[in-house]
Design goal:
The structure is a single chain. This protein has 139 residues and is mainly α. It has one domain (23-132): Transferase(Phosphotransferase) domain 1 (Transferase(Phosphotransferase), domain 1, Orthogonal Bundle), CATH 1.10.510.10. 41% of the residues lie in helices and 0% in strands. The chain contains six helices and no strands. The protein has helices spanning 32-35, 42-58, 70-78, 91-100, 111-123, 129-132. Helix 2 (42-58) runs antiparallel to helix 4. It is globular, with a radius of gyration of 16 Å. The protein starts with 31 loop residues before the first helix and ends in a 7-residue tail after the last helix.
Amino acid sequence: MHAHISDLGLSRPADKPSKSGDVYGVIPYITPEVLNGGPYTKSSDIYSFGIIMWEMTSGVPAFSNVPHDFDLILNICCHELRPRIVGGTEVEYIELMKRCWDQDPEKRPSSLELIDYFRTWKNEYRFNWHERVPVPGNK
């Protein structure tokens, strides 16, 4: 299996920093540090990936039940609001997902760490995606 996630609408070279204060995107996928006026970084993509990991277990977009407004921004930034974990999700998956969306960008894994995690899971005999992660329509 090969998964590709992209959104080229706001793409730029990785070595070209964004201007502080510029905020682009959809609120649930934007890191707290960017919402607070900081620049986008590689760690920002990892945060967004953590939100996508949650969506893979829930089958719905993150925070689809609340308005995407200033209150949501405050809750994400000041109260560390994240989507509620879906029951039945494998512990290792939850731990990685939470590391990806950690409030502290320094605590988020690198993309290489993510690759290592997924390769390990793929090769572990006990990890079966169809049985271990609650995929919508696969319950």
